[in-house]
UniProtKB/TrEMBL annotation:
This is 3308_t:CDS:1.
């Protein structure tokens, strides 16, 4: 769980969220585990502060659909982050994670 005292400092701005969505919609590899972990930490902080934000949930969906190969080591953590969102995409993200867990 993220330290809520400094959570707003770790969140993505709206402009950054739009850029991330556009970037993750492309097919490429994220082969640096440290970079992925740092990204997920900031995504978690953002979702904790804004659990109803559909764009943040869309980032999760893009990660598990287009970048699942890069998430293998972080799949449990991504699942924990997905549990924190309160959008309609939560079920879709969690279903895809369950599918990935069965097929790894």
């Amino acid at each position: 769980m993220t330290d809520l005292n400094n959570i707003s400092d770790k969140c993505f701005s709206e402009a950054i969220v739009e850029t991330i969505i556009a970037t993750l919609d492309q097919k490429f590899r994220i082969d640096d585990p440290q970079l992925m972990r740092q990204f997920l930490l900031r995504l978690e902080a953002s979702i904790e502060l804004h659990p109803d934000n559909k764009k943040l949930a869309q980032i999760l969906l893009l990660l598990v659909t287009k970048h699942s190969v890069d998430l293998v080591q972080e799949l449990q953590y991504v699942k924990e982050i997905a549990e924190k969102t309160k959008t309609f995409l939560k079920r879709t993200v969690l279903s895809h994670i369950a599918y990935l867990e069965k097929n790894i």
